[in-house]
Design a protein that fits this description.
Elements (H helix, E strand, L loop, with lengths): L9 H17 L2 H17 L1 H8 L5 H15 L3 H12 L6 H15 L2 E8 L5 H15 L2 E8 L7 E5 L2 E4 L2 H15 L1
Parallel strand pairs: 1-2
Antiparallel strand pairs: 1-3, 3-4
Helix pairs in contact: 1-2, 1-5, 1-6, 2-6, 4-5
């Protein structure tokens, strides 16, 4: 699989790699990628859903049934639904958020893209996201797949992670730096 094994590791990496291999075999990479992005979005927006996948209190069957209902409501079926069902049956649903991230990374690499995580104080408009992706593409020399998150505690600015590089222009970090500088003076 062209070195993608070095890209991801652990339980999440093994599951994501297996899902990618199956999706590639079935010619369904784009559909599965779309489904996994939707699962990642749902997990990021719902504390209850995160509790369901992370809590050891729920049985594997309870998790499988509940998450299956969520997937059905979201219109997610086929390979992706079977994958989530298998993860639940094997008591690996706790790693689903990491599986989504690992799968995105594998797909990005397959497409010749680089993944970038952008955390902002407010939701980026599509124009801002497109502009940021273009600037990052120019900086790294490859297409960029943006993963966007909102963290109001940043107050303003953004934090961008591309691979092992991080650029933090958030107001929160600048204020913390100012606070430290003022403590040193006094």
């Amino acid at each position: 699989m062209n070195g993608e094994e070095t890209l991801v590791s652990g339980v999440a990496g093994r599951y994501a790699t297996a899902l990618f291999d199956l999706a590639a075999e079935e010619g369904a990479i784009d559909q599965v990628a779309s489904d996994m992005n939707e699962i990642g979005r749902m997990l990021g927006e719902s504390d209850d859903l995160m509790r369901l996948v992370r809590s050891p209190v729920y049985s594997a069957e309870d998790q499988r049934r509940a998450f299956g209902a969520v997937l059905q409501k979201a219109g997610i079926g086929g390979i992706t639904a079977n994958f989530v069902n298998l993860a639940a049956r094997n008591r690996r649903l706790f790693a689903l958020p990491e599986m989504v991230r690992a799968f995105r990374a594998i797909v990005s690499r397959h497409r010749g893209e680089v993944s970038a995580e952008v955390v902002t104080a407010q939701e980026l408009t599509e124009e801002q996201a497109t502009s940021l992706a273009a600037a990052l593409k120019e900086a790294v020399g490859r297409s960029v797949n943006l993963s966007r998150k909102v963290d109001a505690s940043l107050i303003g600015g953004m934090v961008v992670r591309v691979g092992s590089r991080m650029i933090d222009t958030s107001l929160k970090t600048k204020l913390n730096g100012l606070r430290l500088a003022m403590k040193e003076v006094g």
